[in-house]
């Protein structure tokens, strides 16, 4: 096209140059014919030029439009594009890590990976292999507390203490879309303690339901606050339902857990033995547990939560002591507790509870209640522990409560205006009333606590918390018996990776 244009231009110039030689004395008619011929040539040249410019524009548009590409071209385009951002389970929480995403998200990540990828998320990087098959993320948790108690009639309860609520290091990752793993060790009591340690398999059942199966040292799926990690609870310590209505082995046990997830519900079933220990001379206790939650109302700004859970444990011959001493005024004052008194000869226990709550905008409310039945030997009657709590919170800075609809628990909040970006962070006001009753035993005590607090989230993984607790205990055994009241002020700085 360009060569034709040049050829035509040269012909026109030659015609103009030759005109004087063709006619030494042209007539007016000849001149008029010549002008008309030159005008025609110029018009033809202009039409060709317009056509050429139109074709060039079309070619540029075609090049900018997406077209099928070869494998090397696709690789170059993907390498130049930003990494895939996995959609979180809810916009108000931090996206889950490699061990918590579902199989669809794992497949999406693998399909997008070309070249080694390192992405910085909530505090620590996520590493992905060149083919997207292998995923790895370090994990960490530092929770530092200080607590001061006053007002008790017993001077031994009026203490000021410090402690590490959690000091964890670990990792999580996956191989392909199905296999995943997680491991964490806690050093908070100046001892090495294995906490979460499992491997698992995930897949889908139809288009709307998926599942996973985990094997290893597993965290309980029990109660709302009991299923929420210690770094995500809105208060410095979980409520009495989670701390008292619990299997004898505690929050962890070695075994297998299956979980199923739908669009607005989840259900889990687990069979576990004792937690990690070095005791293999006797049988483990056996615990069967289950939990389910349902969100019958679920919109962009509001949600209703309904949940239920239960467990049944057959106690080992080495775990027949059921004596309990449960904190009521904060974790780091070991003297402020509600006690059962000495309780020996346990055979088995059964616990169950219900959850009801939800949120609208930045306001959330959650009520929990539970009961534990301990069966004793030698013909003695069963012992019943009862607990309940009512909690609420309000985000003043526009965030939605960090509710995870996949698990029916709280997670890390997605802060809208982080302090590290020059913003104000997220500010949450909280309040809770909780009650615990061990009086079904002759020597059993009872107590309650009312807590008000404020949480300041600098970003999605750093927070400051302050709790003021008015507590009451009435123990019938131990060093601090009778009715007693006091106040505890606790504070925390926490970082979660």
Written description of the protein model:
The chain is an alpha+beta fold. It folds into two domains: 2-64; 140-496, Porin, CATH 2.40.160. 17% of the residues lie in helices and 45% in strands. The chain contains five helices and 22 strands. The protein has helices spanning 2-22, 28-64, 71-80, 103-112, 240-244; strands at residues 117-120, 125-128, 134-150, 160-175, 179-186, 193-205, 209-219, 252-261, 265-272, 286-298, 302-314, 325-327, 337-339, 346-360, 363-376, 383-395, 403-404, 409-410, 426-437, 446-459, 462-475, 482-496. The longest helix is centred in the N-terminal third of the chain and has 37 residues, at 28-64. The protein is elongated and about 135 Å long. The two termini are 62 Å apart. Residues 60-83 have a biased composition (Low complexity). Keywords: Signal. It comes from Sphingomonas bisphenolicum.
Quick overview:
The chain is 17% helix and 45% strand. With 497 residues, the chain is α+β, with helices and mostly antiparallel strands.
Task: Please supply descriptive tags for the structure shown above.
about 500 residues; alpha+beta; Porin; 2 domains; 16-stranded antiparallel barrel; two-stranded antiparallel sheet; 5 helices; about 45% strand; elongated
Q: What share of the residues lie within helices?
A: 10-25%
Q: How many structural domains can be distinguished in the coordinates? A: 2
Radius of gyration: 35 Å
Supply the CATH superfamily name of the largest domain. Porin
Proportion of β residues? over 45%
Low-confidence stretches: 1-23, 58-88
Tell me the overall shape: elongated
Largest sheet data: 16 strands, antiparallel, barrel
Terminal-residue CA separation: 62 Å
Give the strand order of the largest sheet, numbering strands 1, 2, ... along the chain. Answer: 3-4-5-6-7-8-9-10-11-14-15-16-19-20-21-22
Number of helices: 5
Q: What's the number of extended β-strand segments?
A: 22
| Element-by-element helix/strand order | HHHHEEEEEEEHEEEEEEEEEEEEEEE
CATH class of the largest domain: Mainly Beta
According to CATH, the fold-level topology of the largest domain is Porin
């Amino acid at each position: 096209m360009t060569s034709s244009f040049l050829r035509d231009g040269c012909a026109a110039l030659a015609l103009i140059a030759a005109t004087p030689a063709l006619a030494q004395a042209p007539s007016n008619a000849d001149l008029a014919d010549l002008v008309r011929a030159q005008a025609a040539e110029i018009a033809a040249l202009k039409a060709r030029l317009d056509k050429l410019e139109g074709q060039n524009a079309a070619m540029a548009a075609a090049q900018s439009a997406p077209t099928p590409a070869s494998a090397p071209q696709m690789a170059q385009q993907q390498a130049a594009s930003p990494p895939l951002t996995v959609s979180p389970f809810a916009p108000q929480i931090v996206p889950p890590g490699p061990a918590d995403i579902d199989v669809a998200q794992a497949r999406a990540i693998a399909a997008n990976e070309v070249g080694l990828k390192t992405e910085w998320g909530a505090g620590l990087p996520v590493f992905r292999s060149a083919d997207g098959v292998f995923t790895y993320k370090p994990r960490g948790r530092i929770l530092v507390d200080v607590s001061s108690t006053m007002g008790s009639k017993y001077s031994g309860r009026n203490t000021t203490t410090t402690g590490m609520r959690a000091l964890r290091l670990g990792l999580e990752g996956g191989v392909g879309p199905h296999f995943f793993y997680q491991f964490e060790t806690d050093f908070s009591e100046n001892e090495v303690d294995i906490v979460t340690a499992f491997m698992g398999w995930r897949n889908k059942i139809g288009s709307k339901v998926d599942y996973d199966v985990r094997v290893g040292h597993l965290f309980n799926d029990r109660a709302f606050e009991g299923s929420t990690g210690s770094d995500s609870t809105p208060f410095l310590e979980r409520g009495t339902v989670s701390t008292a209505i619990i299997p004898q082995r505690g929050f962890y046990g070695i075994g297998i857990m299956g979980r199923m997830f739908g669009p607005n519900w989840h259900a889990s079933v687990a069979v576990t033995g004792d937690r990690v220990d070095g005791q293999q001379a006797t049988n483990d206790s056996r615990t069967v547990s289950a939990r389910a939650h349902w969100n019958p109302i679920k919109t962009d700004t509001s949600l209703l939560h309904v949940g239920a859970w239960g467990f049944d444990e057959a106690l080992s011959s080495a775990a027949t002591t059921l004596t309990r001493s449960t904190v009521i005024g904060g974790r780091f004052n070991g003297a402020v507790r509600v006690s059962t008194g000495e309780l020996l000869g346990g055979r088995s226990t059964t616990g169950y509870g219900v959850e009801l709550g939800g949120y609208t905008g930045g306001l959330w409310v959650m009520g929990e209640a539970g009961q534990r039945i301990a069966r004793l030997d030698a013909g003695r009657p069963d012992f019943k522990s009862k607990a309940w709590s009512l909690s609420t919170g309000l985000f003043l800075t526009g965030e939605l409560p960090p509710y995870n609809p996949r698990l029916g628990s709280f997670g890390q909040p997605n802060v809208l205006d982080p302090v590290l970006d020059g913003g104000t962070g997220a500010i949450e006001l909280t309040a809770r009333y909780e009650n615990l009753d061990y009086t079904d035993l002759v020597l059993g005590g009872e107590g309650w606590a009312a807590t008000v607090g404020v949480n300041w989230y600098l970003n999605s993984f750093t927070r400051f918390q302050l709790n003021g607790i008015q507590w009451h205990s009435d123990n019938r055994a131990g060093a601090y018996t009778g009715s007693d009241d006091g106040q505890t002020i606790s504070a925390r700085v926490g970082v979660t990776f």
